[in-house]
Amino acid sequence: MYNPFKILWLVVRFRRPSRVVEMKAVADSFWLGKNYSALTFFGYIVVHSQEEADKLNATTAQKDSLKRHEMIHLKQAQATHNSWLCFYARYLWYCLRAIPQNRYRRNAAYYLNPFEMEAYEHMYEHDYLDKCKDGANGWRKYAKMKPGERAALSR
């Protein structure tokens, strides 16, 4: 049975992005669409099953590309005024601006989000997180582009 208070507990316990060193994975499939593997939520990685959570918790971002992708979002939140709320507000804004692109590409609002574009671009680079000591700022170059320009770039 689904426990709605589980995700609320994560919100209550959240810390500023700069105070999060390692993101712990938790299982809560209610918040994830079936096409998505994980979600960064206030310093936690939310995944579909407990097995996936255990696997992510047992590895490091240097060894697992999915964990590295989510850790890039942590670095982006650090670069966004070190605030989860500022990060999520911008994330939502970029998704809303890209919605018209959904008629040309499935889930374009997600894939054309500058935060996701940076995370997907660098999720296979083992040393990328080490390069981002003061936060990940690669998303800013995509944010300067209009959604149509980002769509043309990602084709």
Topology of this structure?
Blueprint: H1 5-12, E1 24-27, E2 38-41, E3 44-47, H2 50-58, H3 65-79, H4 84-98, H5 108-111, H6 114-122, H7 128-131, H8 139-143, H9 147-154
Parallel strand pairs: 1-3
Antiparallel strand pairs: 2-3
Helix pairs in contact: 3-6
Please provide a written account of the structure.
By secondary structure, the protein is mostly helical. It has nine helices and three strands. The chain has helices spanning 5-12, 50-58, 65-79, 84-98, 108-111, 114-122, 128-131, 139-143, 147-154; strands at residues 24-27, 38-41, 44-47. The chain has a three-stranded mixed beta sheet. Strand 2 (38-41) and strand 3 (44-47) form a beta hairpin. Helix 3 (65-79) packs across helix 6. It starts with a helix and ends with a helix.
Tags for this entry?
single chain, 155 residues, mainly alpha, three-stranded mixed beta sheet
Helix fraction by DSSP (H/I, runs of at least 4): 40-55%
Q: Class by helix and strand content?
A: mainly alpha
Which parts are unreliable, with pLDDT below 50 for 5 consecutive residues or more?
none
Number of helices: 9
Q: Please list the strands of the largest sheet in the order they lie side by side.
A: 1-3-2
Radius of gyration: 15 Å
**Main sheet summary:** 3 strands, mixed
Q: What is the overall silhouette?
A: globular
